[in-house]
Structure formats: C-alpha cells, structure tokens
Amino acid sequence: MSRSRNDEIATLLEEFADLLDAKRVEYKPRSYRRAAENVREYPQPIEELAAEGQDAVEEIQGVGDAISSKIVEYFETGEIEELEALREDLPVDMRELTSVEGVGPKTVGDLYEALGITTLDELEEAARASEIQEVKGYGAKTEENILENIPFARESQERELLGDARPLADSVLDFLDSVDAVERADVAGSIRRWKETIGDVDVLVASDAGESVVDAFTDWPGADSVIEAGTGKASVRADGIRVDLRVVVPAEFGSALQYFTGSKEHNVHLRNVAIERDLKMNEYGVFDVSDVEDTSDQRAGRRVGGETEAEMYAALDLPLISPELREDTGEIEAAADDELPDLLEPNAIRGDLHTHTDWSDGDNTIAEMVAGAAERGYEYHVVSDHATGPGMVGGVGLDDDELREQIDAVADVAAGADIEVLHGVEANVDAEGGISVADDLLDQLDVVVASPHSALGQDRETATERLVRAIEHPSVDVLGHPTGRLIHTRPGLELDYERVAEAAVEHGTALEVNANPHRLDLNDAGVRAAVEAGATIAVDTDAHSPATLDYMRYGVHTARRGWAEETDVLNTRGVEGLRAFLH
Ligand code: DGT
Ligand code: CA
Ligand code: CA
Ligand code: ZN
C-alpha cells in the first residue's frame, strides 16, 4: 500500500506548480504539471533513475534540466531548497483551500497576499465578514460562491470515498488474517454498512492476545504512521485514511461487532427494544437483567448471547439484519414482522449493461472489455459508448455514422466471444429531455442507456420533468446515472424520486445504479424510492477498463442499502429475460 516514489515526486512537483501559480509566475507551473504527470506514469521507479544521475531522470518526457536537478536534490538531501522557500513564503493549506469549488492556486495566492488567509476556517471567516469582495479583482458574486461551496469542501476534506476506503479495508483484513494471534477479523462501522463516504475504517479483531495484535497492526506495511496505540486498541493512518482497530475476546466478538457496526440510530432503537424485554444490550453481550438490582456494571445479569451477531438479534426474537440496512429507517420493524427484504446478492449479477471502449473515452478495445466480462463469469456484456451530444466535450462521443460503423465491429467480436455481446449506446439527455441519437439508429441498437451529462444545475421540477421525458422515449431502456452527481465534486440534479420511479414503471424503463464510486447514482435513497414504486433497476459499472468492471460491488451494496431484491434488478435476469425487457 505504501506509495511508489514516482507518486511522491509527482505530488511534490504539483505542489511546486500550485505555489508558482499562487505567486502568479507564468509558464513554469504548466511545465511542472506536465512533468508531474509523466513522472507519475513512468514505468520505472524514479529513485533508480535519480541514483544514476540527472541525465537518466531527463529521459522522462517533459523533465528538463531545472526539474531533474530538483529531483536529484530531493533524493540526495531529502528536500528541495526552492520548494522550501516557496512554502515559507506562502504558508497556506493549499489542498484544503483549493478543495473549494472556484478557488484555485491563483486565488489562494491573492487572498493570502491581501488578507493573510491560510486555512478553510479563515477563508470562511473572511467571506462572512465581506472582506473578500474588497480584494482587487474579486466581487460580491465570487464571495457568495465561496461561502456557498465551503460546506461541500469541508465534507470532502473529512470523509473518504467508499471506493478508496474499501480496498484499504480489504488489505488490512488480509494482513490481519495472516497474524497468528488473530482468531477473526472483520470491519465494522460505516464501511461494513457500505456507506458512500467513510469517516474512518473500523476494524474488529477477536483474540486473547490483544497486545500481539496491536503490535502486528502498528507494523502493518500499509500504515504510513501510527496515531495511537494502547492495550487492545490502536489507530493508524494509511493513504490518508484513519484505520481504528479494536481487539476483543472471542466470546464477545459478536456483541462488539454488532455494537461497532452501528449505525448509532439503529443501536439506540435496538437497545430500547431490549429494555422493554428486561434485557440489556451492549458491546459485551445481551444480558437478562430482570433479577438484577444494580445494572450499572456493563456485564451485570445473566448473559444470553454475544459470541455471534446473530445471537444478539435472536435474543430479541429478530432475524439477523444485514449491515447495509442498519440505519433505523424501518428495518427493525420489518425484522419484527418477518418482512425484511431478500437482498440482492453480488453473485446474482449476470452482466454489465453500461460500459465503454476506446471507441469513445474508454481505455480498451471492444474485445478486451468482452474478455474482462467473460473472466468475471458474466453471461452477457453490453458495449455502450458515448454518443456525441450536450455534455460531451473534446470529440469524446460517437456521431451517428460512427455508431453505425460500430455495429459491425461489435458483431465481429460477438461472433468470436464466449458470452453474449450486445450493442448499446450511452446517449445524452439534453436539457429538455431529448435524446442525442437519431431514432432509426436507436431502433437498431440492443440497449439504449440515456444519461444527463449537462445542465446539471436545473431546479427540482425542471430536472424531474426532463428525466421523465427521457424515460418516456420509446427506445430508452435504462436511465443512466440519473442525477449526474459526482460525490465531493458536484451535487447533481435534485429529483422527485417518486415521480421518476412512477414514470419508469409506467414506461418499462430501468433506473441505473451507477456503481462508479464517484457516482453511486442512484444513491441508497433513490433506490429505495424506485423499488418501493415497483421500478426495475440496473446495476452498472460504467467501466472504462476491464479493471473497473470490479466497481460492481459498490453498486450492489448501494442497491442493498436501498432494500433492492434480486427480482428488482434487470441484470440478474438471463439473456432471454433481459431481451424481453428491452423489447
Ligand atoms: P463514520 O466513521 O463517520 O463513517 O461512521 P461510523 O458509523 O463508522 O461511526 P464511528 O466510526 O464513529 O463509530 C463506529 C460505530 O460505533 C458506529 O457506527 C456506532 C458505534 N457506536 C455506538 N455507540 C457509539 C457511541 O456512543 N460512540 C461512538 N463513537 N460509537 C458508537
Ligand atoms: Ca467509522
Ligand atoms: Ca471509528
Ligand atoms: Zn458511461
């Protein structure tokens, strides 16, 4: 997990570029950024080149004399003198400040010069005091924008994307499984509930040797630093993410797992159910306290369960509730009535209905993507490259002629493939709900995904009507990433989910759960509204490479958070069932 040094050097060069930009130096920042990009992607470890000398470093494109000498200096002395001087000159938290949409390095430089702003808090204070609009070149509108975007920036500073935290959690679990003293290891907290963003990664271990586990954990090669280490408890930072470890004795593993999985609201509700039955529920177990006078001792009473999580629920006459549902949004009532959903399982997915190739902005050929799908055990695969249209910039999308050409190319690959290959398109939903591809062409394609890529600032009513129009289009099969949001980057369309879902039911259009961890769109609430209305959902990765076909799990667990069952999901059907829906 520890990063390659190419990444480290690239990050330094980018910081250099930001600081030069902030000082309003011309041209230089661009060349530093270009060098950073090439260093990051260079296949050979940069430390090897640096050891050979400056000439070797200059083999990297865009790295000339000035930059190579700094790289060598860094490897020799541990710092770059010029960068240190710039940092001293501009002691700003660049990452934090530039996370505010509309605030770039130049703005950071200007605001530091004029007002001495170095942090997000100071930026907010200055904006509230109307000081920013007094700065030359800045106005009331800019100030208002900054103020509006600060909460979003603050959240993006504090919470990690599931797609970043989950692989880290997997690697820490793999590591712990290899530690002798560890009997069982699992994640708890929001990551076990598969929330779209994660405050920290909670890890729980069952062991009788807490000290050895803590020692091993703090030596985990993936950890960049140790935040704290105690008896049976420790926290480290890895790739900027906080990982909390707790060790409990095996007999209390189930109760601890239940407690630390949360959510807090779910646990509070559950504890109240326990109290009504003269039971006490906590991280140590569930206890019958009907004969106990003083219940202040956490382990007081007769213990009726806690080694497994299922025992905790069984003590309350409840079936085990899946972690994804534990948000106190009706799951405890449903469990009591034996009406929990039969949740979608990851292995029920039989194919991906939304993927890209190098015909548009994907990285791989049609054949490579199909091979990736076959490797993952899918029965079918849909090629759905971008069509040109609103929101597609830089010639990314295919025009109608190119799409017609692609029909033959897909057929060629299909003829030699082990799995069924369908030809689709990702068309754009324009601001009024129109579709960006000719109707007769849409008729010829197997799958039409229609997604909004532009005009994402519309109000709720306009946006809802726009998407309903797209849903009504007779050729549209799937409404792709309905809100167009990018987590931590842009909020996307605000929608009346019920209205969208009703239209989807009426017109036989599926609603996508886009599994890309930056999107997760529909989100959990959107899925819940969709399945409650009886709409069909499609869980798709929007993959631009074979590796990103593995995003599927984020979509599946988001669908589970929305109470989706296998029967609600289009791509759990076999190819016959799929084709029947598409017609
Ligand atoms: P996060 O980390 O902000 O994404 O959300 P969680 O849910 O992982 O929350 P976290 O890490 O603060 O705590 C882990 C779990 O511990 C939480 O889901 C519920 C459980 N818990 C139950 N009661 C309490 C309590 O009083 N304090 C804390 N900190 N956790 C509690
Ligand atoms: Ca957590
Ligand atoms: Ca925690
Ligand atoms: Zn796409």
Fold and architecture overview:
- By secondary structure, the chain is an alpha/beta fold.
- The protein folds into four domains: 4-156, DNA polymerase, domain 1 (Orthogonal Bundle); 160-248, Beta Polymerase, domain 2 (2-Layer Sandwich), CATH 3.30.460.10; 253-336, DNA polymerase, thumb domain (Beta Polymerase, domain 3, 2-Layer Sandwich), CATH 3.30.210.10; 346-582, TIM Barrel, CATH 3.20.20.140.
- It has a seven-stranded parallel beta sheet. It has a five-stranded mixed beta sheet with strand order 2-4-7-6-5, with helices on both faces. Strands 8-9-10 form a three-stranded antiparallel beta sheet.
- The two termini are 47 Å apart.
- The chain binds 2'-deoxyguanosine-5'-triphosphate (DGT), calcium ion (2 copies) and zinc ion.
- 2'-deoxyguanosine-5'-triphosphate binds at residues 189-190, 195, 198-200, 202, 259-260, 262-264, 267.
- Residues 4-327 form the DNA-directed DNA polymerase X domain.
Task: Offer a concise description of the structure.
By secondary structure, the protein is an alpha/beta fold.
Structural class: alpha/beta
Strand elements, count:
17
**Strand line-up of the largest beta sheet:** 11-12-13-14-15-16-17
- CATH level 1 class label of the largest domain: Alpha Beta
CATH superfamily of the largest domain: Metal-dependent hydrolases
What form results from the Cα inertia axes? globular
User: Could you tell me which ligands this complex binds, including any ions or cofactors?
Assistant: 2'-deoxyguanosine-5'-triphosphate, calcium ion, zinc ion
Main sheet attributes: strand count, strand direction, barrel closure = 7 strands, parallel
Strand content: 5-15%
Give the count of structural domains.
Answer: 4
Distance between the termini: 47 Å
Main location: cytoplasm
EC number: 2.7.7.7, 4.2.99.18
Protein name: DNA polymerase beta
Domain Polymerase/histidinol phosphatase N-terminal: 351-431
